[in-house]
Structure formats: structure tokens, C-alpha cells
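Troubleshooting entry. The earlier prediction with adenosine-5'-triphosphate gave an output that would not parse, so I re-checked the input for stray whitespace and re-submitted. Clean input:
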Amino acid sequence: MTPENTRFLSGLNDIQRSAVLHDNGPCAVFAGPGSGKTRVVTLRAARLASQGSQILVTTFTTEAAREMETRLTGMLPAPAMKLVTVSTLHALCLKVLKAELPSFKLVTDPHQQRSLADLAGARDIEGGCRAFLSQVSLAKNMGNTHKTYKPDDSGGDREFARTWRAYEKVKADRGLFDFDDLILAVRDLLSSNEQTRAKYASQYGFIIVDECQDMNGPQFAITLSLGRDHRNVMLVGDLDQSLYAFRGADATTFRAFAKHQATKVFELSHNYRSTQSIMQFADSLIKQDENRHPLPFQATRDEGLPVRWTRLNDADDEAEETAQEILELHKAGLPYNDIAILFRVNAQSEAFERILAAHEIPFASKQDGDFYARKEVQGLITYLQYLAPDEHTNQAYADEWLLALLNVPDRKIHRDVAQQLIHVAQMRNRKVRDILSEFPAPDLRSFKGIKLLADQLAQLETAVSQCTNAGQIVAKIRNITGYDRWIQHDPRGVREQEDDDRIVNIARVEEAAGHYATAADYLKAVRMVREAKQKRSKDRRGHKHIDEITLVTGHGAKGLEWKVVFAVGWSEFILPHRKAVNYDEERRIAYVIATRARDRLYVSSIDRWNDSITAPSRFLTSLNLVASASPARDVAAKSLETPNSLLGGLFD
Ligand code: ATP
Ligand code: MG
């Protein structure tokens, strides 16, 4: 063995070594979480690059790619590092298309994508533009194009196929590509143009794919066509961690690749990440899937502390309990960087951000965008700002907020009216609120709109005095203004979200606000979240050493690990998700979340999620575990006496 080789082998077990030392020809690594798959990928790439080979490593998320690149940079001298490309497949395809198609333009803004769909007539498809685009995305991820798609005999599907063709034409006329086109366009380019394929294939002597259980057919097609000349392709994955069937992930190719007689297969059986308690818990979860092919695994770590399962009343109590535990751990010397809070849906993040901010616990939230800036949430917040006394002047009903509410919901008030209202109010030296009833509106629609606004504000102002918490005020806003109807029927302003719909977010605000006695208290908590986030991004820009907790979904946590993991919201409607059709995939999400933990795993369930009473996740109840009761359970018992409307149909 050459000295260069041994440099990359220290601390590996025999099978890991063989995999790192594998030279030419196809190979597959099948293994469970924490068995060192990513370590093998990194070390094999480093070894091959240090010997002068050009390597392409693809990973599933940008974060994982970045992390692997950092590790490789620490291991390799600069000239060898230049031989390694670590990328997601999407980023790679983006590079190829930019180089091959000079006029290439990618649509990244979901609003723009929706307007393009609208131009193609998708508004008339059942579910509107949003549902149409998801259906197109799924069809593309399954490898279909608008040309190859074969609709079934139903009128609806034929209509879908027709609209899809129109959508592709709308994009083509403008030279635009959507995100899913990246993969399909490169697949088609490589399969139709041998010269181009050979050009890219010759750039990489070895191809290594991590997390390949989540690749779809077109992604495999690209990878395999790049490796066709030398067959130096290594596919690495764990079928138990496949989370993207809903986006067309298909492990058939991975399995067929591994079964091929030319493929050398490595099965890593030792788990290095987690304590035995955590491994046993995770294993008992995944075992409930009867269709899987279990891999043997061997623990290398000690038993560790038991997995703790706690049942709490609702998301705020869960966040409070988690924050208290985190403060204890931190006091005992654990850095925040070693802790993650992992959840199933983005909407769960809100309570944690708010309560961590209130405790001044630093956190990095990996969610896209700001929950409070979402249109449906911002409207409610603006109403509360209008109704609550200002923290400086101590006066409510400020003009600023009222003017922002003229068309929330849409009251068909002309856009010039805001300026005119300010002008008239200033002339009369009064608040806008006090001149609404005598305002000379410029047209009939605006007149009616202003009247409606004045009535609704008057009703709200009276109603607020009877409310005993801010959640009741939110409920009044929803009721009196017809807020939900407006949000549901507005075809614009919807951002792409996989899990959350806008009514869920509204219900989230109502439930969260219910924990604060006044609107001003709730608004203060919201302000603290925003300030905490601004401070974090300033620290990040200033490259300060950052010690913070990670908040991320199970999907976003793939491949990562922390000493302590809080697996939160393990309740029906959340995990499994209320819209789940594939419970095996939901269970795998739970499995991935649990196996991110190295030393301690805290699992919690909540008995109420927004306006529904929930039961503990079926994945937990089937384990015969006993939940530890927290003081908040007394409150949970009381909440069972809430009216039927809150039961979400569970007991109907
Ligand atoms: P996942 O399926 O979650 O992506 P994985 O199989 O890729 O997990 P790694 O992330 O590579 O696993 O490794 C898990 C942990 O185990 C890491 O902290 C890694 O450094 C450690 N590890 C891997 N192999 C060994 C080994 N032979 N000895 C000690 N620690 C190891
Ligand atoms: Mg990994």
C-alpha cells in the first residue's frame, strides 16, 4: 500500500477501507445511518484526487456539498483540490446549460412561474396554477416531458396535458427554463448529442454519488451517461432514508446497479454515530415497515441515556419545555452548535423561534423566508398593530397601520385613496380613523369599500375589549373581516410551499397569539424574533464565531448530525403529515430525524396543533413507550373540554 493511500485510511474499519481503496469499475455502498458512508465518499474522493484523478461528487443538498467541500479542502493541497468537483446535480446541470445555451434563463421566482402557468390557462385546471405546477413538476421528476406524457382517458388529464404543452410553449417563447427543466434538458442534451456528452464525461475520471436513494430516473440517467465510458461510478445510499418518493425518487436504478454482476457492493454494518439507546429506538421505528430489506447493524457506542418522550399541551408549551432543557444543557457546558431542533413541517418552526428569542437563545433557522412576512400572516399582524397601543405613544389606531389595511381583505378601494385620506386627515388635524365616515371617496366602489372598512374596524375595536388574550383578537379579525375567505380565493401572492398552506399559517398565528394576554405582548414577542434574526445575520456577515442552535426540517437535516436532537411535534397531523398518502415515507422521515442524534434524543408530542386536537404519532404509540408527563399535561386535560369545533373532526 502506498503511503498516499494509508493517509486516507486511518481510523476506518475493514469494509470502509476496502470501499475507499476501490479503484476502477462500478461499486455501490449500501448502509444505514451513521455508518460512515459520507466519510467513505469523502476519503475515496480525496485519495483519488491526490493520485491525480478528476472526480465528480454529487450530493443531495447544497449544504451537504458545501460541508464535503470544506472537509476536502482541509485534506488536500490546492492542486489536488482543483481536481474535485463537489456539487448537487441541479447546480451541475445549471453550469452545463449556461455553457451550452448562451440564451439560457432560469425562472427562480415562484410568482413568475405562476404567471407563466396562468398565461398557459392553468387557472382553469382543478386546484389552479399551484396544483398544475406541482403536477407538472412530479411528471417531470418521473422523467416525462410534455411531448412524451400520455394522459389517461379522463377529460381532466387530457386538459392537463394540453395546458402543460401550452405552458412549455409560453416558456420556450421567452427562452425560459424552470427548475425541473434543468435536469430534463441536460438529460436530453447528453442523450441526443454524443459530442457534448463525451466532452462532459471526459472531465471526470470517477463519479461518486452520496444519498442516491433520493435520485429520480432522469438524475440517474445523467449520472450514468457521464460515467458510461469508464464505468467508474460509485453509488452510495440507504433505502431506509429515502424521503422523496413524492418528488419522483426511485431507487429501482440503485438496486439494479447494485445487483449487476460487475458491481462491487460494500455493506457497512457499524454505526458510529449514535448511542445504543438511540439506535434501538430508531430501529424499532423503521422495523414497522414490513416491506424493507433490513441491513445488519452493529452498535459501536455505549448504551447512553434513554430516549426521552414527552407529551405536551401544544406547540408553545413544547417550545418552552425545549428551551428550558436547552438552557440546562448549555449551563452544563454544551455549546449551542451541538443542538438541533428537527421538525416535520416548516410551520412548526414559528413557536420555537419565538420562544428561543424570548429566552435569548441564539438559533439559525433554515426556513425559507420570514414567517411573519408571509402575506397571510402579515395582514393579521398589521391588524394587531392597528388595534394595540403603540409602545412609544401608548395610543392605538395609528394611521400608518390603518392605511396598510385598506385592502386587507380586498375592499376594492382605489389605490389613490390612501394619499387622499392622509391629506384630508391632516387638513382637519384628525386621525384617518376619525374621518373615514365623512371622507369624500372618488368613486362608488371606493366609497363602499371605505364604509365597509369603517364598519369592520368599529366592530373590531368593540370586540377587542371583550377579548382576554391576543388569540381571541385574531379570531375576531378572521371572523369580522372575512379574512380566511380572502386568503383562500386570492390567486396571487401564494409562495411555493411543500407542506404548509396559508390557512394553517393563519391558524398558527391564532393559536400562538392565544398565549399572550394582549396584542401588544404578542407583537413584542414577534419583534424579538425579528431582532434576533437580524442580529444573527449581522454576526454572520461580520464572520464572528457563531454558537447557535439549528432549526431545520427532517428533509433539510439529511446527512447531518448533532450531539443533541429535539425531535418535535411527533403527533398525528404533523408526523405523519395530515396530507400524507405514503406512511412508509413519513416513517422514514421520523427515522432520519431520530438518527441525526449522537448522544441524546428528546422526542415530544403535542396534544393540540393549531385548531385541532391531536394524538401522539402512530409511530410512537406502536412502540409501547411511556411518555413522561410534564406539568403542562394538566392544561392538556383542560383543553379536552374545548368545544367540538376544535376537535378537527377527529372524533366525529
Ligand atoms: P447518514 O446516513 O446519516 O448520512 P453516514 O453513513 O453518511 O450517515 P457519516 O456521516 O459518514 O455516516 O458518519 C457518521 C459519524 O460516524 C461521523 O461522525 C463520522 O465521523 C463517524 N465515523 C464514521 N466512520 C467511523 C469510524 N470508522 N470510526 C469512528 N468514527 C467513524
Ligand atoms: Mg451521509
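This one parsed fine. The first strand starts at residue 27 and ends at 31.
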